[in-house]
Write a structure and sequence with these properties.
21 strands; 457 residues; 13 helices; globular; seven-stranded mixed β-sheet; Transferase(Phosphotransferase), domain 1; protein serine/threonine kinase activity; Protein_kinase_ATP_BS; alpha+beta
Length: 457
């Protein structure tokens, strides 16, 4: 049951000690609703802007939140706050609660998310300048996160908001973020964007690099941007497309209308050994120096049927050259698999119930969690989730999951500030988010990490 049906429509209600008015419901999920809102405390004298800032407020119903979901909210607020000053991260202005709900105040992005631009509008296909620009913005945001030891762990188009014209991007939804450089949380995130070591079903269960796993997800997002499709359903040998990729060096160009240069970059990202994976600075340099992401019309005409199907999906219909037809008839393997479609949107704002066998043991300000299983969340505008048979021609995005086995959970620092000490509406100043309320958003102990950066437990 969605929060829209469980919660009353709060449109028109004033919250936050009279500061915000909820105007219109934008979307809903299992445990909360997103509203377009206005800041009643805004005035011309307090800002250089002459127009009232556009804000959106996530309203999370406390009675619906499991302990797992409550921890997720704390993690999201603290991680998002840390990155809120970056120009390619959605600004967080405020976070507070009353007896019934938790409220998170963010910039309102009327352009929707990257998923819509990629899948519905196919905006970046055959548009090198736009594709390069938006991907470099995403790289900048993720690299900035990593520099501050914030590892997102759920990078996907639904968690990247965009401007109306699709030219600017803003990272959001830090519900799975961590400040731990390595993780023992296997199956964390959305399956189509998980690295093999994050999935953990075909690798040795040893701690893996969250930085390298984020980079793998960036590779899948790049494929989404330039082809409106995904390279495979899941990075496992049981997935026929991924299996072909592992055994066939030219697989990506036999499935997708991408240039040789783009394939070389993607093969540097999709390296199963995390320590050999390309770094973000290296990836940025490679993207900047790339002349084009796309095959020419002539290359598509001489390519496999799968490539032409993928191009036609984006509106480019190219007839096969005679030699290509003869080649396809001679090589049945070329038509063995069809490139995966871009995964449909995941259900927004959904948390799974915490199993009864979960145990929390507090020792020295560290929570040791055993057997935890939880659903990931997406707070973008709501849409129906779709599903299909895993053997179908294209993947869908299933429920995200986190399986934590004897995991040491480290929380981010939450710093309380006085009411009124927050951001000027629409600004990007770091450290101004107001965290206030009845105890959920509380101070937590802070320790110095080995790298010297503050990370609370």
């Amino acid at each position: 049951m969605s929060a829209r049906s469980a919660m009353p429509d709060m449109s028109g209600r004033v919250v936050g000690n009279g500061q915000y008015q909820l105007i219109q419901m934008l979307g809903s999920g299992s445990y909360g609703v997103v509203y377009r809102a206005v800041d009643l405390a805004w005035s011309y004298s307090s800002s250089s802007s002459k127009t009232s800032p556009r804000i959106a407020i996530k309203v999370l119903h406390k009675e619906s939140l499991t302990p797992t979901a409550t921890r997720r909210v704390r993690r999201e607020v603290s991680a998002h706050r840390e990155m809120s000053d970056h120009p390619n991260v959605v600004s967080m202005h405020d976070a507070f609660e009353d007896k019934e709900n938790i409220y998170i105040v963010l910039d309102y992005c009327p352009g929707g998310d990257l998923f819509e631009k990629v899948v519905d509008e196919k905006m970046y296909f055959r548009n090198d300048d736009s594709a390069k620009s938006v991907f470099l913005q995403i790289l900048d945001a993720v690299e900035a996160c990593h520099r501050r030891r914030v590892y997102h762990r759920d990078l996907k188009p639904e968690n990247i908001l965009v401007s109306r014209d699709g030219s600017e991007t803003y990272l959001t939804d830090f519900g799975l973020a961590t400040c731990n450089q390595v993780s023992e949380t296997f199956g964390c995130g959305s399956s189509y964007y998980m690295s093999p070591e994050c999935i953990g079903k075909e690798t040795v269960h040893v701690p893996y690099s969250n930085r390298a796993s984020d980079i793998w997800a960036l590779g899948v997002i790049l494929v989404n941007i330039i082809t409106s499709r995904s390279p495979w359903n899941k990075a496992m040998s049981t997935d026929p497309c991924f299996r072909e990729y592992l055994s066939h060096e030219n697989y990506l160009r036999e499935m997708l209308p991408i240039s040789e240069g783009a394939q070389k970059i993607l093969r540097r990202i999709f390296v199963c050994e995390p320590t050999e994976r390309i770094t973000i600075p290296e990836l940025r340099k490679a993207i900047i120096n790339l002349d084009t992401f796309f095959m020419t019309n002539d290359e598509i005409a001489h390519a496999t049927d799968n490539v032409r199907v993928a191009a036609a999906f984006c509106g480019l219909h190219i007839e096969p050259a005679t030699s290509a037809v003869e080649s396809a008839m001679a090589d049945s393997k070329a038509a063995k698999h069809v490139a995966a479609a871009a995964p449909p949107r995941t259900p927004p704002m959904h948390f799974a119930e915490t199993p009864e066998h979960v145990s929390l043991l507090a020792t020295a300000n560290v929570f040791v969690v055993g057997g935890l299983s939880e659903e990931a969340s997406s707070y973008s505008s709501a849409s129906d989730a779709s599903s299909s048979d895993p053997e179908s021609k294209g993947p869908v995005t299933p429920s995200q999951s986190v399986r934590e086995l004897d995991l040491v959970v480290t929380e981010f620092q939450l710093q309380l500030s006085e009411p009124g000490a927050g951001f000027l509406p629409g600004s990007k100043g770091k450290g101004g988010v107001k965290l206030r309320g009845l105890g959920l958003l509380m101070d937590v102990p802070v320790v110095e990490s080995e790298s010297g950066s503050a990370c609370s437990l």
